[in-house]
Structure prediction request, 225 residues.
Amino acid sequence: RNHGFAYRAGWWIGRAIIAFLVLSVGLTVLYKFVPVPVTATMLMDPNGFTKDWTSLDDIDRNMVDAAIAGEDAKFCLHSGFDEDAILTAWRRNQQGGRIRGGSTISQQTAKNVFLWQGRSWPRKVMETVYTPMIEALWSKRRIVEVYLNVAEFGRGVFGVHAAAEYYFKTTPDKLSLRQAAALASILPAPRQRNPQTGSARTRSIAGGAQTIQADGRDSCLVLQP
Prediction:
């Protein structure tokens, strides 16, 4: 009997794993071509949510480079994980204080699209499954396009289109460098921060975005000049 139970349990677990993989790969392939309609973070926001999908061609290059400068300066150089950033974050966390992450834009996109927010080992393990998957099946351009369309920019504000309209009464293609940097500055903690065009962090990100444009670290995205 025990052998029979173990066999049936293994059979169902195996089927569940296969079904999960098929669904995961299927959604990843689908989202390579179509806009992500909704995410768990959006659905769980008690404020409701505002979003509007925008093609990367209609997002100012300043916004793209500001996001890279603020969140993942090596975005075009890594294959999903930035080992140096992870190691640096781990060392800082050993010293105590506020926990810092070392997540790349690819990791954040995997989390935002397929998973949930919060710090937990199950979520991090799942993140390490989805991140290589989107790196393998999507282009870098597609990853950053999806990221900017699903990222949270405030309570109920998702995606750069909603953020540009909500904070600056403009559209993503008309964001100035300082406005783009201000939006990027709140990405690590969008529910606790407001975009301030004159803050030190905004100025730092703006400078980083200009450097990224100058040295070609956004070349993998084939952006409009």
Summary: The mean pLDDT is 89. DSSP finds ten helices and two strands in the chain. The longest helix spans residues 2-31. Strands lie at 152-154, 157-158.
